[in-house]
Amino acid sequence: MNLYDDQMGLISQYYPEIYSQVVQEQGVEKPRRRSGRKKKKGEGGSGNGVAGKRKLSQEQVTMLEMSFVNEQKLESERKENIASQLGLEPRQVAVWFQNRRARWKSKKLEDEYSKLKSEHDCTVVEKCKLENEVLRLKEQVCEAEKEIRRLLERSDGFSSINSPSSSFLMEVLDPPFLGGFGFEGLEKVLYVPQNDYINGLEWVNRYDM
DNA sequence: TGTGAGAGCCGTTTACATCA
DNA sequence: TTGATGTAAACGGCTCTCAC
């Protein structure tokens, strides 16, 4: 059983009147090659024997839609079959499939756009949430720093500046010595002895080239 | 390798239906 | 009745594939 048989099964099930008409028209042999592809406008080609375009009937469209759902591409044999079943020119069937593929593609693009837009909107909302969170955390840090400074100032009245607790707090609050003066990375190149009690100027002179 | 035919895609045109 | 507008059928041009 091929796709065509599947289609016919569906059609007989859902559209018995169309199916009986189709079965009656089976067996019509048509030439497979098209002759004279180009036609001037107004020459027709609709196969209706009427000048101008005519909309396809509801039954024709239904059958074409069902066929399209089964398979979007149209092989020659299938096209001939559908055309003979529906009393249309093969060219009409081909054109209908072409236009239907275009509509399908357009709809697909529309759906993809909607999906992407929805995802984009979600991302924007998430970004706003994260930015708010960053602001909130920054405020917390600011408050914490104020609190530390307040505690430091209070502790000045009770202990000397060289007490272990205050030096620890200073380390927390102040940037590293080299980094604070724009010498980031130099500490890796220059050796600074840990317990060397030379003053700052002497230290600079020692490493001055 | 060149050529002709068939088929698909894309953009456009045309015929027709609908509505204000 | 008529003009604007939307939709679907059809066309024309281009490209690709395949057989010869």
TrEMBL record:
Domain called Homeobox: residue spans = 47-107
Annotated DNA-binding ranges come to 49-108
Q: Which domain of life is it from?
A: Eukaryota
List, in alphabetical order, the Gene Ontology terms for molecular function in this entry.
DNA binding; DNA-binding transcription factor activity, RNA polymerase II-specific
Task: List UniProt keywords, sorted A-Z.
Answer: DNA-binding, Homeobox, Nucleus, Transcription, Transcription regulation
Keyword check for Transcription regulation: yes
Which CDD domains would you find in this protein's record? Answer: homeodomain
Q: Which family does it belong to?
A: Belongs to the HD-ZIP homeobox family. Class I subfamily.
**Protein function:** Transcription factor.
Under what name is this protein listed? Homeobox-leucine zipper protein
Species annotation: Abeliophyllum distichum
